[in-house]
Amino acid sequence: MYAKEDEKVAKRLDNAEKASLRAQDLTQQLLTFSKGGAPLKRLSSIKDLIQEAVDFSLRGSNVRCDLILDNELWPADIDSGQISQVIHNLIINANQAMPSGGIVSVQAENAMVDEGCPEVLVALKPGRYVKMIIRDEGCGISEERLQKIFDPYFTTKEKGSGLGLFTTYSIIKKHDGHIDVTSTIDVGTTFSIYLPASDQSLHASASASPGLTAGSGKVLVMENEEELCDVIEGILLHFGYEVVFARDGVEAIAAYQQAQEAWAPFDAIIMDLTIPGGMGGEEAIGRLLELDPEVKAIVASGYANDPIMADYRAYGFVGRIAKPYRTDTLNQALQDVIG
Length: 339
Hints:
- This protein is α/β, with parallel strands linked by helices.
- The chain is built from 11 helices and 12 strands.
- α10 (307-310) links the parallel β11 (297-301) and β12 (319-322).
């Protein structure tokens, strides 16, 4: 945020940020596997996700990737962290299947599924899809093992957990998609994935998005971690917001009511779902709605599996943001709400 783009430190900080966000995604996948949870969908470019995931997964590898991506690939409403994990899992599997090196082919194209679609796609509704094909030149998988490949804890590796492909299958199903696999011994393995495409234009969405532009407004942040408050304050002040903090729901409600009575209301409030030993966002939003039915509350949580994050509007929130916070997403969430 403060380093110049042409400085070496900026590049290193950018790489560090990507690595930490990858760790965040991996952690959220473990939570998704252990507790379940709906994906947090947003309009996204699958093409960009594929390029980033391939670059990350094959870094330092002796395996080369052939990317064949449709230039007009349709966008999709997806949880980008989860779909990135799917691609990562499949690329890692392909890499490990070729210990002496080789080529993994990654294709992505637009596909229409009609009523008379092949038997393998009977689980899909007719419509527009983005189809991904990931093919390796590895040792292949026997027909017997292929039947169990998506089962939990089943693995063909000596030190494998058996969770990667099960998690991959679960994520695709929760996106109303389909995944299929074919394999031939000593020839290779091919995974095919279908994800529902969006009717929205990504370019229209991007042009409507102010991105890293200055903001304005008075923001109440409900957060009990002092170190995190310092970070949030720095980000919001940098973009031009006025910020006030509350340690829990009780303080947040009191601060919000006091601001209303002083005719200096808050333009938005960011509320952490979980406050150890105190009132969290779920209880506090109910009381705030009684004070002000028009309250603009954004729910925040590091637990992607929480049902409130997936269906936040049903609980009275008007926006959501995943923790740990990113500069761009924090600013964007507020601009979407405040306008």
